[in-house]
Amino acid sequence: MKEEYQIDTKANQIFLQEIGSGLLKFGHGFPSPGGSSWYLGDDGTPWTNRSRETWITCRMAHVYSIGVLLGHEGSEGLADAALKGLGNELKDKENGGWYAGLTPDNKVLPGKQCYAHAFVILAACSAHLAGRPGAQELLEEALELYDRRFWDEEQGLACDTWNTEFTILDDYRGINANMHTVEAFLAVADVIGKEQYRDRAGRIIRRVLRWAGENGWRIPEHFTKDWEPDLEKNIEKPDDPFKPYGATPGHGIEWARLITQWALSTYREDVQNAQPYIEAAENLFHRAVEDAWNADGAPGIVYTTDWKGHPCVHDRMHWTLAEAVNTSAVLYRVTKKVCYAEAYAEFMEYLDEKVLDHVNGSWFHQLDRNNQPIGTVWPGKSDLYHALQSVLIPYSRVDLSIACAVRER
User: Any catalytic annotation for residue 117?
Assistant: First the structure.
């Protein structure tokens, strides 16, 4: 195994720095004239015939706010462009909140998504840390809206989707939006010190761990309005980009990292109370990797499995690998177990050999079961969020949100 794949070697640190620099350069063309993010193509050229979505714009605001903290040239203007989009054309000044996005001819995409609003909070936190104008006001507005429309205090969970006018709440409940809510809430607690949001993150985590523990550490993704698991959801459309059928191993891996971050930031030196959550995170990671890594005779992590762990959609998504890199590094830092360092090295080797686009830049966002690039679910290279975080988290504090950790580092 090459030294550049092994954690805590100088070669690995240089390798990650080079990837990160390339990613930040790749994304420079994202801002539309109004600030909302174009969807980037294979070589970073904007696809102007696609909708400009709020969640992608938020991710780019987050990424280039981190770019500011890293000293990447041009990041200030790019972060500010995305904030302009969130403050103007993507903002619903009549009904409140943020549109799902805008079509190429500037029509509103219907609905108000919890997922997108969680990313508004994350983007505002990172921009605030980076000292971007208007970020504090954006954060305050986003938190007020989220608390009023999406947070269910009785359940200790977030609902998922409203209509555009905030008059009809969809019956669907989902774990993906709650996962990114945890990420956003931890950032709020770290950035502005509002610890009630860390407490809320813990409430979500405890519910998720209960469902996962009852289901062989495969997390149910979809629920009814009463929060009953809907395990057969989208069985007829198993490769849905946001609501796929079955278990999503990449989410199990991502939850493991967020749970570890929450536990360490909540309990600090209280190892006895943190330990059950670390063990649960390990269970989630091992279940996902056992089910999905090299599951069909070729390297890579399959997109979904059924509830017995058999692959359903064999395609490999770039974000899943990014989270595998992150979480193996985090669990190695926390537990010192060699198995996580070994897993990290395997993931890094696969990244270099299959997922990095050494010609056009960035990462291939979707590969088939033979590790050939395809675009049936994720054509092009929409954003940089997962990829950039994966080159930073392995050498950052594990109990801090990534923007805070980068600033400290």
Answer: no
